[in-house]
UniProtKB/TrEMBL annotation:
The chain crosses the membrane at residues 43-64, 85-105, 117-136, 143-162, 182-201, 213-233, 259-284, 296-314, 320-341. This is Membrane protein YkvI. The lineage of its organism: Bacteria, Bacillati, Bacillota, Bacilli, Bacillales. The keyword Transmembrane applies. Signal peptide: none annotated. It comes from the Bacteria. Keywords: Membrane, Transmembrane, Transmembrane helix.
Length: 347
């Protein structure tokens, strides 16, 4: 089939949308994985994006060539069917717990806006199910609309901050960390692997030409790298203030009007929303092979079951659950990077 630039753009925005969750958009991930290591973190961003680019391409090419329906089928090609079966339940648990964190995050956001936790939770549930009603087209269209807006706003905040504080730091260089930054770059790339795998493994049948995958990988990694670099450079200029803010982004907006702060809060909620949609999308496609039900109904049922658990609290869930999946994510990233070498003779 013929190459489609628009299709490549939608694929790239889906990759970005799966990656830019609340942690990235708020600046917390950027600071913890990069900025806290000082100036050397600028180069570690390049390493993280190179790993991210390669892993995204491998997943999409496997999904396209093998016409996979969900992440378990991609894992079977990468690590073998026997090991993939063992990982299957762990990935399901990860997607469930990650979605639970997003649902709780929506409730916490509504509380900050002066609303109720329950309204925030149920708004998220309804909004996610609405996208699931349109299946793959809904996911691609949502990201094609929301991600350019989100990225533009984040870039605008950083550019505005740097314009007001001189692009070149007149006081000298930021502090250096005694720890090397490159291991953190690898950890960051691995951190996103399971969500990325869950989504991209369902998109193989949407690809019309191999060049669409290459272009989608280039656009998505370039966009993420640009935002991360701008964000990182900006946060390094206010490194003495970052510890005072739970959301580092607000350290760049100290002189902004309350209206701007509310708009940014909405962008953060959208980041939570796109991540929740990606996770539930991956879950619904996987579980639809086990239960003969519409995928939107499976996804909606999962969300309803998660609602009571959301009361465990956003911060508690993040602190307890996320470290549990670190080793698994790193293993998946390693196997994806090795796949082109270990399967070269079968290509």
């Amino acid at each position: 089939m013929r190459f489609s630039l628009w299709h490549s753009l939608k694929l790239s925005m889906t990759i970005v949308g799966t990656t830019i969750g609340a942690g990235f958009a708020s600046g917390r991930e950027i600071w913890e994985f990069f900025g806290s290591y000082g100036r050397s973190s600028n180069w570690s961003i390049l390493l993280a994006m190179a790993l991210f680019f390669t892993a995204s391409l491998v997943i999409l090419f496997i999904s396209w060539k093998k016409q996979t329906r969900h992440y378990s089928e991609v894992l079977s090609h990468v690590i073998g069917s026997r090991m993939a079966k063992g990982f299957d339940g762990i990935v399901i648990l990860f997607l469930l717990s990650s979605t639970l964190v997003m649902v709780a995050g929506s409730g916490a956001t509504f509380q900050q806006w002066g609303g109720s936790f329950a309204w925030g939770v149920w708004t998220m549930v309804v909004a996610v199910v609405f996208i699931l009603l349109f299946d793959l087209k809904g996911l691609l269209s949502m990201n094609a609309i929301l991600i350019p807006v989100m990225t533009a706003v984040l870039i605008l905040v950083c550019v505005q901050f740097l314009s007001n504080h001189n692009w070149i730091d007149p006081t000298g260089s930021p502090s250096f960390s005694t720890m090397p930054a490159w291991p953190s770059a690898i950890t960051y790339a691995a951190f996103n692997m399971m969500s990325l795998l869950a989504v991209l493994s369902t998109l193989g049948k949407q690809v019309r030409h191999g060049m669409e995958i290459w272009l989608a990988g280039i656009i998505s990694s370039s966009a993420l790298g640009l935002i991360a670099a701008l964000y990182n450079y900006s946060l390094l200029r206010v490194e003495d203030l970052v510890s005072q803010y739970e959301i580092p982004l607000f350290a760049l907006m100290r002189s902004y009007s309350p209206l701007w702060v509310m708009a940014i809060s909405f962008i953060l909620w959208l980041a939570i929303y796109t991540t929740a949609v990606s996770n539930i999308h991956g879950l619904a496609f996987r579980l639809s092979t086990m239960f003969p039900l519409p995928r939107w109904l499976i996804g909606g049922g999962i969300l309803v079951l998660l609602v009571p658990l959301s009361r465990l609290g956003f911060t508690n869930l993040v602190t307890f659950l996320y470290p549990l999946y670190g080793v698994l994510n790193l293993f998946i990233l390693t196997m994806l990077l090795l796949y082109p070498l270990t399967h070269r003779e079968r290509a």
